[in-house]
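hey so u asked for the seq, here:
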Amino acid sequence: MPLPIRFDTNEIFIIVNGIILTLIAVKLLPNRLTYTTSIILYLHKIAVAIVVDHLLAGPPLDLYDVMDTPKFEFFDLIIYIFVYGPFTYIIIYIYDKWFYHKSHFKKFIYLLLITLINLGCEFIATKLNIYIYKGWTLYYSIPIYLIVYITNFYLLKYLKDYESELSQKVIN
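ran it, structure tokens below
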């Protein structure tokens, strides 16, 4: 796995954000979800990000590059593990705590809000050359974020239902 061509603002931005997001997700947020649920959601986000990036950024589409090169490099892995994973965990944590039992309208508003936040983060990332568009535009990301977060919310519901079912079996 190659190292960056040059160590500059995009790598520094990833390191700083990775540290902040990981500390928030691991140290500042109280344990709300079970470890199993947390790990599954965390790994799910990383897997989805890798698959989506390779489908869209790799051949034959080649719509954008991540970091300095079209090839998978060390800081791509850092983004997946220490930025995407914790960021999504924080979003799911907030959803679980404040929106899980709310109306579909409130859930929809939250979904739109986090999509806008993701678009803002992606916009900043393009300015720092973390994403280099070659046929992609920011607007194409909207349905991706919507689908990914809806999938995450349904996965959370499935995992909570499954854990509840298991605990009922243990009690009986």
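The beta strands are 64-66, 131-133. The chain has five helices and two strands.
lmk if thats what u needed
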